[in-house]
Amino acid sequence: MSVLHFRYRERRRTLRVTMTLPVIVHGANEQGEKFCLRCTTRSINQQGGQLVMDEPLIPGQDLLLVNENTNRSIEARVVYAKKERDGHFYVGVEFTNTDSNFWKMTFPVPGARPLRRPLGSKAMA
How many domains does the chain have? Predict the structure, then answer.
């Protein structure tokens, strides 16, 4: 039996980048109690990211994220949350204002090809 590979069109506005960054999450739970949690990112893109947390969040919940590297903050909304086998919760968030460059990065556009070296330009060690 052979494995088939399908190419699909990227649906995201910008590609995800796997990166671990420290983030502080501010919000309120269902009872209205405020919380402040430290977590890290698993992957990011210009419109949001995926957080690795020890506490569960609810889809649709509004949050305030603070990037600990830059001390910038942005409002976000929980898109999905699921618990993995390792006991951590993986939470997808989307920024409510996508115009700001919260991560201070330039992201590749979908469909962009990676840069490649010409064949004859390998460095000798």
Answer: 1
Within 8 A by CB and 6+ apart from 32, the residues are none
Residue 12 belongs to a domain = no
Which among 117, 125, 107 has a CA at the least distance from the CA of 15?
Answer: 107
Residue span of the structural domain in which 50 resides: 17-95
Cβ neighbour number for residue 1 with a 10 Å cutoff: 3
Question: What is the structure's pLDDT at 41?
Answer: 96
Six-digit token string for 32: 């209205």
Distance between CA atoms of residues 8 and 111, nearest Å? 10
Tell me what the mean pLDDT of segment 28-56 comes to: 92
Question: What phi and psi, each to the nearest 5 degrees, are found at residue 43?
Answer: -150, 155
Lowest mean pLDDT among 17-26, 68-77, 101-110: 101-110
Q: Is the pTM of this model over 0.85?
A: no
CA distance 95 to 75: 6
- Domain-located, residue 125: no
